[in-house]
User: What shape does this take?
Amino acid sequence: MSDFILFKEHQKSDSTFLLEIQLNNPSKLNALSLEMIQKLNQEIKKWRDREELSAVFIHSAGDRAFCAGGDVAWLYSQIKASREKGLDLALSAKDFFHTEYETDYMLSQFPKPIVLWGSGIVMGGGMGLFMSSSHPVATESSLFAMPEVSIGFFPDVGASYFLNNIPHRLGLYLALTACRLNARAAQFLNLTPWFFYNKDKQRMFDFLKGASFKNKADFDIQFKDFYKEPDFLSVQECWIENFKTEILKALEFKNLDSFYDYFSQVHLEDKQWEQNRQNFLKASPSSLAVVFEQFKRARRQTDRKALFEMESVIAMNMSCRSDFPEGVRALLVDKTKDPKWSPNHIDNIDPEEIDKYFIPQEGWSCALKV
Assistant: This one.
């Protein structure tokens, strides 16, 4: 297990170091286990105040995925075991989510440049790492998504911050529909300004080992000089731009009921539209309602740390309810694809119950200590 995330220090000619971090579990699409998150957390704490560090390079083994998310199948087994033993379900999940959010927040505040190579699948926890890095790189194979509502969860790992920052509430659409994005769509939504071909990975690594810079501002200048926008951005289709009018019409609705009615009725002769529509209609009703409330509350909060702490409360509450473990069971463990949501329709949602997802229960500590 300890080899599923690797750390290597590279001494540079100017006597500084480049820290290389590699996710190394390609058979699981580099999904983040608790041990991987804990080791990453420890390394980030160790290096963040060291003057001899020049930059961090984060990448992954294999071609299919940078990171497909957290290892929620393992988390499901922990919650199931806690339920059988009569233990606090939230506490069985706390270490996983709390450490993950703390790590993402520390990355977002890291004093040195972090270049993250986000080729292949970048979803869930992978998106958290990507969006917390100072220089996240997308490639022609990048595939982004926050698909949590499909498993009875919610877009976390800082999504309250980075999805809410997308103009015209388009981030809400991504959260509710588990919409998948390529690199061109990521550019359109301003998720990152950095794009390279997959074949340029070694060239990037050589640049980071060879460049000498005093601070982040100096690095930005050199990185911009190094950067050349790849041709694939002009070739890839930007689905979300092509259907922006239809999406914005859906986003005019300010409540979940109206949004649901719209998606129930509007069929378009487009494969991606229909897939997103089905993702929404089949998602956990409670998750959809939580997401609506999450985005509403996040718009009033600009402090990134506070938003991570809000997500920590939601995650622990969801671990206590039935939909999250049921969604993981049905889609990822037993793979029956028939989750039994409770409640099973948005018409049965109790607003007071949704409010409870945002209230820490007695004895919980969800503050990030960073």
Remarks:
- Strands lie at 5-11, 17-23, 53-60, 65-67, 114-118, 121-123, 135-138, 143-145, 194-195.
- Residues 185 and 362 are 42 Å apart (CA to CA).
- The mean pLDDT is 95.
- The radius of gyration is 20 Å.
